[in-house]
Design goal:
The complex is a heterotrimer of chains A (68), B (291) and C (281). With 68 residues, chain A is mostly helical. Chain A has 5 helices and no strands. Chain A has one domain. The termini of chain A are far apart. The relative contact order of chain A is 0.16. The C terminus of chain A is likely disordered. Chain B has 2 domains: 85 residues; 171 residues, no CATH class. Helix content of chain B is 56%, strand content 2%. Chain B has a two-stranded antiparallel sheet. In chain B, a hairpin with a 5-residue loop joins strand 1 and strand 2. Chain B is elongated. Chain C is of the alpha/beta class and 281 residues long. In chain C, strands 1-2-3-4-7-8-9-12 form an 8-stranded parallel beta barrel, surrounded by 4 helices. The relative contact order of chain C is 0.14. At the B-C interface, helix 2, helix 10 and helix 11 of B face helix 1, helix 2 and strand 6 of C.
């Protein structure tokens, strides 16, 4: 998995995000990120990730189409 | 390959095809070409123009009554009469139709009597002339042109049927009932297609207004009564007074009970000319990258 | 000449049409219309006869190593042709990857992969839609990991690499700067200012999670904060080219007079910035 897809999954998949938050480096390695990327993800701003993911989840649930 | 020599059923089919083609042609001529020179703000700057375009003179009066009641300038008394509440009411409005309605209500008038009041109807018809000038309603030359095309179409429809009738009678066949019925139906459809109330420009204008205000209609329940903004008036003009939510505008049903055939959208006489718009556009991006 | 306009929101239709005297341009969200029937899309032409129309995309996900789907670009191209806007814009963001739909604009890892992907996507967008979009910086609550470049350098590489105009969202910039603990003007200076043609103004609110530092959320539901007008003034003082400024408001709509007062403030900030530039010259 590339870093971008990994980040998208962190935002969109709650269970995956929880697993990552519990063991960032292991999950990043397991998903195929290279050592440098895995290390950078492991050091990422986890509270920021939670806030952003929560915000995106609200967006997904509240999305309006053109006919709404 | 002479269709007039064809047997009854085959000729009726031929005639039906001819009739459809003639009616389609008449409808196409009557519709004309859409002309985009008229701005939507020409309409929104005086929403009564929209009410007239969608409906008729009576609809303009209904929307004016709605507006004046919403603004608290007239009110419906318990005896069922509309009365002007403030002596200075006329100085608070700027459109002639509103002033005329206020004047008509000084002595107290039933809502239904207002939409039949000849002086008010005359005032409202001025909007029709405005709309004709802008090409949104057919003007006299357009109506004459439509009539000429209709006469031509009727001549074709009656002529083809007539030739067949002569040929059939010459051959001793007298059963022309189905042909006569088909001819009358075709002529009626041709006339109906010819007398479209709106021009193509008018129909496009009405459709545009509905598309652009659809989202506003969606939040009509949150509009504050009292004429604080032009939103309720614009919606009433565009969709009819019965499109406004009864919760926010409970007086509408008392003033003018919704006709049983009204589906909740248009009122007036142009239902068949109205588009079914559903967009309106305006979700926004809702914040870039967040919330 | 500088212009100031407003994002078209159907909910504000009556008010906007009534106050066009205060509005130079209108910006329409593309995705509100891409799935609408052609007849409804044509109504945008009626709007375009009132004021120049700008189309604003929010869902392509151009800044991605993954290719934007053809059908999205084709839908946008159809809308572009039908609505005949003056120009269009999109975000420097990704919105989906690896089969995961984020649901909104997100900052991708800022590195060579997203730069090359963005340039490829922009070339396809230009080919299919017919013109290159103006590119907008986004707000993010979290700095994207695996990012060897900072936001300014990454943005410059894409904007200049694509030869695209930039839509500089000053509230996004302001929020990112505050959330990262840097001076907004310092972040402004890292952006490709010579390419800026369009500017977005909006508002947001502070999130105050317990035990954590507060963060500014760009939500388009609040008034433009004062420092953002100051940033606009600074921008107008630093660049010579005409700017088109759009106020974005997506909900909790105030009275139109209040929105118009924000447009007036934007005009004043622009004028003040231009005066500063003239004085400095």
């Amino acid at each position: 998995m590339d870093a971008e897809s990994f980040l998208a999954r962190l935002y969109a998949d709650e269970a995956f995000r929880e697993a990552f938050t519990a063991a960032p480096l292991e999950v990043a390695r397991r998903e195929g990120l290279d050592e440098r990327e895995a290390g950078e993800f492991a050091r990422m701003d986890l509270p920021g990730l939670a806030l952003a993911a929560e915000s995106y989840a609200r967006k997904r649930s509240g999305r309006r189409g053109p006919r709404d | 390959m002479n269709p007039f020599a064809w047997s009854g059923g085959k000729f009726l089919l031929f005639y039906a095809v001819v009739a459809v083609a003639v009616i389609a042609f008449v409808a196409w001529r009557a519709r004309g070409r859409s002309d985009s020179r008229v701005n939507v703000t020409f309409m929104t700057s005086d929403p009564y123009r929209i009410a007239y375009l969608r409906g008729d003179s009576a609809e303009v009066i209904r929307v004016s009554v709605f507006n004046l009641v919403d603004r608290g300038l007239i009110e419906l008394r318990e005896d069922g009469l509309l009365v002007t509440v403030r002596k200075d009411a006329e100085s608070l409005v700027r459109r002639a139709i509103d002033r005329a309605v206020l004047a008509a209500c000084f002595a107290g008038t039933a809502p239904e009597a207002l939409v039949a009041n000849e002086a008010l109807l005359r005032e409202a018809r001025a909007y029709g002339r405005d709309l004709e000038r802008e090409g949104l309603l057919p003007d006299a030359p357009t109506r004459r042109s439509r009539l000429a095309w209709l006469v031509g179409a009727l001549a074709v429809l009656v002529g083809v049927a007539g030739v067949k009738a002569v040929v059939a009678l010459a051959q001793g066949r007298t059963n022309l009932v189905f042909l006569a019925i088909l001819t009358v139906i075709a002529c009626l459809f041709a006339a109906r297609a010819s007398f479209r109330r709106l021009t193509a420009t008018g129909k496009d204008m009405l459709d545009d207004l509905k598309v652009l205000t659809m989202r506003l209609l969606g939040r009509a329940g949150t509009l504050k009564p009292g004429g604080a903004s032009n939103e309720a008036l614009l919606l009433a003009a565009t969709y009819g007074i019965w499109a406004l939510p009864a919760g926010a505008f409970p007086f509408v049903e008392t003033l003018y009970p919704r006709p049983r055939s009204d589906g909740g959208g248009d009122s007036g006489s142009s239902g068949s000319d109205s588009g079914d718009s559903s967009c309106g556009g305006g979700g926004g991006c809702g914040g870039c990258g967040s919330d | 000449m500088d212009r100031v306009g407003l994002g078209w929101r159907g909910e504000l239709a009556a008010s906007i049409l009534e106050r066009l005297d205060a509005i130079d341009v209108l910006e329409v969200i593309a995705e509100d219309w891409t799935r609408a029937p052609a007849r409804e899309q044509r109504s945008l032409r009626a709007l375009g006869r009132e004021r120049p129309l700008l189309l604003h995309g929010v869902a392509l996900g151009l800044a991605s190593r993954h290719a934007v789907e053809d059908k999205r670009l084709a839908a946008l191209a159809r809308l572009f042709e039908t609505a005949a806007p003056e120009s269009w814009s999109e975000h420097l963001a990704f919105v989906r990857a690896g089969g995961h739909e984020i649901g909104h604009l997100a900052a991708p890892p800022r590195g060579p992969a997203s730069i090359e992907g963005a340039l490829r996507n922009l070339e396809r967008a230009r080919r299919i839609v017919g013109t290159t979009p103006a590119l907008e910086n986004i707000a993010t609550l979290v700095a994207p990991p695996a990012s060897p470049m900072d936001e300014g350098a990454w943005t410059r590489r894409i904007v200049e690499g694509a030869g695209a105009p930039m839509l500089l969202d000053l509230h996004n910039l302001y929020a990112n700067a505050l959330n990262a603990g840097i001076e907004p003007v310092a972040l402004l200076d890292t952006m490709p200012l010579a390419s800026v043609r369009l500017v977005h103004l909006s508002g947001g609110r502070w999130l105050r999670p317990p035990g954590l530092a507060p963060r500014l959320l760009d939500d388009h539901l609040h008034d433009v904060p004062d420092p953002v007008y100051t940033l606009l003034e600074t921008l107008a003082a630093r660049v010579p080219q005409p700017l088109t400024v759009i106020l974005e408001r997506d909900g909790e709509f105030p009275a139109m007079a209040h929105l118009v007062s924000q447009l007036v403030r934007a005009r004043e900030a622009l004028a003040s910035g231009r005066r500063l530039a003239r004085r400095a010259a």
